[in-house]
Amino acid sequence: MLVIKNYIQFKFLVLWLALPLMVACSNQVEELFQESANERVKAVIVSCATTLKAAPYGWTMDYTTPVGFQSNLVLQFADSNRVSIYADFEELISESSYSFNYSQGPILSFDTYSQLHLLADPQVQPLGFGLEGDFEFVIMSVSPDSIVLNGRKNRDRVVLHKAQNGAIQKIRLVKQLNVTVQTQNSFFHKLDVNGNLCDIMLSADLKQLEFQTADGKNRSEISYTENGFSLVNPFQLGGETVQNFTWDAATKSFKMNGLYAITETNIPTFSVGATANELIGFMHVVVGSSYALAIPYYEVATLFTQYLRSEIFLNVPTKITTITRSMVNGETVDTKQSEMATKISYAFVFNKVNAGDTWNNFNGKSITFPREDKILIPTGTRDGEESANLNYNTYSRQIATFLFNSTGLTVFSRDSVSYLISTKDSKKWIKLKKSDITTPEQVKYINF
Fold first, then answer.
1. Helices marked H in 94-164
2. For residue range 190-212, what is the model confidence (pLDDT) as tens digits?
């Protein structure tokens, strides 16, 4: 408060000292604002129109709508008020008309239906609201390399950045390989060159490709081109040089030398490391998932409003409390008995700061390690009578089916985060972070 008060006093003092100068400066003020508001708005529009068309590779738009939907677009502005738009959520490149107007300051408007209109369409789920995007934007500032916009309706801030060569190809590659955010991607990808296999991962910073072959690991920066990308550090595989990839629109894949495509795979050919043991003996909290499992999590949270989080503990000492209800001399008596046991569990935590009574646990009977980067939990059950009400919940069963199955899960670790990936469908994965929360307690009710 003292700092603010001193600041106000200082501003007042400056104003008071400036009073004798105001009459003398009045002509300068008139000169400063001699342009009308319309003229200033027109100047912004002319500057924006010229700048938009001056970018040979267009402009990138990383757009997050108010409801959190993330998309990446490339917009190329041409004469005759035409703009071509590529969006990562729709492979086709569309064309729209654009215009400028003065309705609420300088406005950039996309007039004919395009991907931007799809983001603003109330018919898109959730119905009546859509993704709350905009297709009319107030121009806030213009510079040679960036243009700042504000959505006219939803007030979402969007920045256009001058694109580099290959901007569309970068979006395509990141869309296919990125697993750092919630996506519909397969987690693993491979390259097959004359029967010689290679696993491919995109680095966490999205700037490098990581290759695992029978001969070891290779890592390279990516240089994007108009039709694809190339590796700064090429290597040999199956008698071919792995360096240049082009986009094949027919198969919607990148192909090396026009022949060998990057394809999806459920299981990596080579081990991703001694990752399985990193999970054993520790509590982990679920902090993310692929799109395929996000819906079950969302539905559980919607159906059970007290749902806080989900936890996984593999071979963790757990307190098991059994409460047995009986009738003694006509009165109800509950007898409690506790013991420690090593559990393999997946817990839905409800209305607890720490992992608590756990009437919502799936428990595995055993865990094996078919490979150093793989775990297998063949069966799952639900302990506790109260958990029966969730046994009929389709969404929680989907998660249980993901965890407890006959083929197992691949464990991938990076940047202090672990991923469990289905070996049946690598589009299904969950993201885990080690936690120091209290060791969970499980309660089993008998005769209730």
1. 115-120
2. 999 999 999 999 999 999 999 99
Mapping DSSP to helix (H, G, I), strand (E, B) and coil, where does residue 13 land? Answer: helix
Predicted structure pTM score: 0.78
Fold that domain 43-162 belongs to in CATH: Lipocalin (2.40.128)
Per the structure block, which two tokens stand in for 47? 């500057």
Position 340, amino acid: M
The residue extents of the domains of the chain are 43-162, 167-265, 276-446
pLDDT digits (tens, 9 = 90+) for 231-265: 999 999 999 999 999 999 999 999 999 999 999 99
Q: CA–CA separation, 208 vs 61, rounded Å?
A: 22
Cα 25 versus chain centre, distance: 55
CA angle 92, 98, 99 (to 5 degrees): 175
Structure tokens at 369: 């390690």
How do beta strands 409-414 and 374-376 pair?
antiparallel
Where the chain has pLDDT below 50, the residues are 1-33, 353-358, 384-389
Q: Which long-range contacts (CB under 8 A, 24 or more apart) does 392-395 make?
A: 393/300, 393/303, 394/299, 395/295, 395/296, 395/297, 395/299, 395/300, 395/303
Per-residue CA distances from 333 to 36, 219, 225, 442, 444 (Å): 86, 66, 75, 20, 16
Burial of 104 (0-12, 13-18, 19+ CB in 10 A): exposed
Torsions phi, psi for 347 (to 5 deg): -120, 135
Nearest to 88 by CA among 125, 119, 110, 47: 119
Write the CB contacts of 26 (distance below 8 Å, at least 6 apart in sequence): none
Q: Residue 42: is it exposed, middle or buried by C-beta count within 10 angstroms (0-12/13-18/19+)?
A: middle
